[in-house]
Amino acid sequence: MPDPVYWVTPRHLAGDDDALAERIGDTLAGLGWRMWPTARHTLVYVSPNGLCGAEWVLAAYPFELGGLPVAWQLSARSHAASVMTTWNAYFTTGVPYEALADLLVEIDSRETPDVGFEGPETVLDALCARGWVRDVDRPRTTATDLGLSCSVSLEMLPPLIEDADPRPDLAGWQAWADPILGAPYLWCASFSASVPHDLVAAFASSLASPGPVPRRTVPESTEGRLTIVRRS
After folding, report:
1. What predicted TM-score, i.e. pTM, was given to this entire model?
2. How many CB atoms lie within 10 A of CB 167?
3. Whole-number pLDDT of residue 2
4. Does residue 54 contact residue 73 with C-beta atoms inside 8 Å?
């Protein structure tokens, strides 16, 4: 018999159900993105207009964020023929696939995914609209869930984050979940400096959505913090 499905909240602590590759692959296929495998045992997807890319890179193990392997890398370029990407975003294992899928739908809907007109406040406003709170010490750059287990913050970029802007000391949006203080992170995400703020806001709004999500398995580190809404 298949494992029962549990509907749980909050989304940001629900994990990826060990299905991050499949769920995001299904999303991209539904959007009409083309896919092919590479010699590095990764899977590359390209949007119909050729401006956006997504790569399942876990097999290549490119680098880590917060001690976790990067699983998906998203990118955008200003012209389909351009070799250099304008921005990149990276997501580790454990990230709730719903938030990543909603971000990809938003990216796919843009004619110019490398251009944004909103300021950083749009990210914090999206989170506060979902009930998150601004950090007391950094109210203009950081918001946290009420359980203090997940944060989205405009921070100095960690190493190996690629962006078309070559200037040093750039800041980009970072997100992470650490349900147990001092324990390993549940997941991490990093957006390079040129990712439009309104795209990050789409990810943040989905991440903080109060709606329950289906899971067959949940992370051990979130025991006691997840609420099972119903079982099906």
Report:
1. 0.96
2. 7
3. 67
4. yes
